Amino acid sequence: MASALIGCGGGPKTAQISGRVLFKDGTPPKGGVCAIQFLPAADTTAEIRKAASGDIREDGSFEVYTRKPGDGIFVGKYDVTFAVWESPMSSKSLIDAKYTSPTTTPYHVTIDQDADDLAFEVEPAAKVKR
User: Fold this and answer.
1) SS3 85
2) Predicted TM-score (pTM) of this structure
3) Please, what's the b/e burial string for 16-46 (b: 16 or more CB within 10 A of its CB; e: otherwise)?
4) Residue ranges with strand state E in 1-129
5) Is 77 exposed, middle or buried (0-12, 13-18, 19+ CB in 10 A)?
6) Which residue in 14, 83, 110, 123 could disulfide with 96, CB within 3.0 to 4.6 Å?
7) pLDDT tens digit string along 22-81?
């Protein structure tokens, strides 16, 4: 992999990342806000510690970017969190709370190259009985 170190690239290495987020039954999460976020892990090897995020589309697909669509994500370790809210004006989560925080999410990934097949499965928020 010496070719990664040779050339006129300069700057920190990035990767293009995309995939799909679905519920266990195979349906995509839906809400007024549907987003995925890659937050640098405490022990990340990323040269630049910057989060990347993207919208979860109606079919569950996503692409993440750091500053603008298409710029990718810095190579390193990330905690993956999700925001699926009822509406932009309501932060009522439609998914289980464990997926919303880097300390409780079950998803931790190391990004070292482009990937278009990342798959994440989330669970809906528990219904409150009244």
Assistant:
1) strand
2) 0.87
3) bbebbbbbeeeebbebebbbbbbbbbeebeb
4) 14-15, 17-23, 33-40, 52-55, 61-64, 73-74, 76-87, 90-93, 108-111, 115-122
5) middle
6) 123
7) 999 999 999 999 999 999 999 998 999 999 999 999 999 999 999 999 999 999 999 999
